[in-house]
Structure formats: C-alpha cells, structure tokens
Amino acid sequence: ISQFLGLKGIELYHAQAAWAHLGIIPLWLTAAHPARQAVPAPLRWWFAWVSLLTWGIWTYTVATQKQYPLPLLMGWGHCLSAYLFFQAALAAWTVEFVPRLLRVLAWMGVVIVSYTLLQAFNLDQFYRDLYTGNPRDLVVGVMGTPSHLSAYLALLIPLFLLQPGRGWMLPTGVAWGLLLLTQSAGGLAAATAGTLLASWGCQRRRAFTAVLILLVAFGWGSVCQPGFLNPAGRLDAWGEYLTLWRDRPITGFGPGFISGF
Q1: pLDDT tens, N- to C-terminus, the chain (261 residues)
Q2: What is the dihedral of CA 209, 215, 219, 220, to 10 degrees?
Q3: Is 102 left (phi over 0), alpha (psi -120 to 50) or beta?
C-alpha cells in the first residue's frame, strides 16, 4: 500500500507511525464519547479532513525529500487549538458565565484601543524603541503589524456593540477610526459584517447609531484618506486565491500551501 501511494523507500519506523496516525483519525471521528458527540458534526469532519491532508503531505514529504516539513504543522496546530477551545468551552461555560466573559473581554479591548490611540497621536512610550527607523509611531496596538491589529479591531467592534449602555458607542467609533488607519481591506470587510450582524438584534436606536458610525467611518476614510482601500496587498492576494480555488475548489492544496505560495 505504501508503494501504491508513492511512498516507496520510506523508513520502516516512519511507515509505522504514518499508518498509526491514519488509523487514529477515523477512530477519533467516530468515537462515541459524549463530549465528542457534543461537538457539531461539521467541525469534527473539518478537523478530520485537515488532519488527513496534513498526514498525506507530511508522509509524502518524508518519503520523497527525507526531511520533516515542520511548518506544515502550524496550520494543523491552529485547527487543533480551535477544536480544543470549542470542546473546553462546552465543558466549562454556562449561560450566566458568557455575558460576564464578554464584558471582561470588552473592557480589555478598551485598554488596547486606548493604547493604540496613543500610537495614532505619536505618544507611544513602549513600542517606540522597537521601531527606531520610523519618524512616527506605528499604529499596531500590541499585535506588531497593522494587519493583525485590523483583525483584532474587527472582532472588538461587534463585541462593543453588544455591551449594554450608550457609552460603548464611543470605543466603537474610536475602534473604527483606528481600523481605517490600518488600511486593511480584510479588516474593513470583517468589521462591516460584524457591525451589521451585531446591529441586527439591537434596539432600533442603537442599531441606527451603529450603522451611522459605519457610514461616517467610510466617509471619513474616503475624504481624509483616499488610499485607505489601497488595492496593493490583500486585494491582489484575493485575486490569486480565486485562481487557486478555481483549480481545486473542493480539496484545495493542503495546509501550509498559502505560506509557500
């Protein structure tokens, strides 16, 4: 079977490990443990598919190139972390605990937004020594890059909107302003979707305020920062990804492919 799969010449201990791992995947997927069955079937099948792809690429690389493709494990590790987090949440969270957790996360977000605002006004006292070649502070929060900051802000904005009280409109507006400074098309798209989704279940006045902040943010970006939707970068990458998707719309190219691409 190993030769049929193109794994001729693989060491015995590598072959034993490969087939053992391949056997674990269906055993895990079909396990009847109550905690396992509580996880939605699409999530279980998604993780099993990622594991199978990782197994195939890993084993083939070891057999043909005689080396361990360690970067391949990064994508699989992210998927494993998401699955374990979901399972831990099912085991530990209660209906009463979730609102308190979201409240704490929102206040932590206020701290990060406040610090990022200092960077926007060139008042950063911490990261300044790390970026000595720039005349102004980089607007990166504590994430290190504008792209990562935009992803964090896109998650924070709907979280702010879901908090009770009108005062949360202020950090929502500030977060939108900082998001525009990152010039991240992906962050803007995610924050727009999050704002509209969070506004759906709010009171009419609160939903109107949220949408108004969204429109003002885009209007301010269009007037004061004409290049805030710079086509270079993410938009170009999306076009390339669309080409890849057309080639393999079902299976894709496997975990870790995008980094190499």
Answers
A1: 555 555 566 666 666 677 777 777 776 666 655 555 567 888 888 888 888 888 888 888 888 888 888 888 888 888 888 888 887 788 788 889 999 999 999 999 999 999 999 988 888 877 666 666 677 788 888 877 888 899 999 999 999 988 888 889 899 889 988 988 887 777 888 888 888 887 776 666 666 666 677 677 666 665 555 555 555 566 677 788 888 888 888 878 876 677 777
A2: 40
A3: alpha
Cα separation, 56 vs 254, in Å, equals 9
Q: Which amino acid is at 33?
A: H
The DSSP-derived string for 139-195 is --TTTSSHHHHHHHHHHHHHHHHTSSSGGGHHHHHHHHHHHHHHT-HHHHHHHHHHH
CA distance 81 to 7: 30
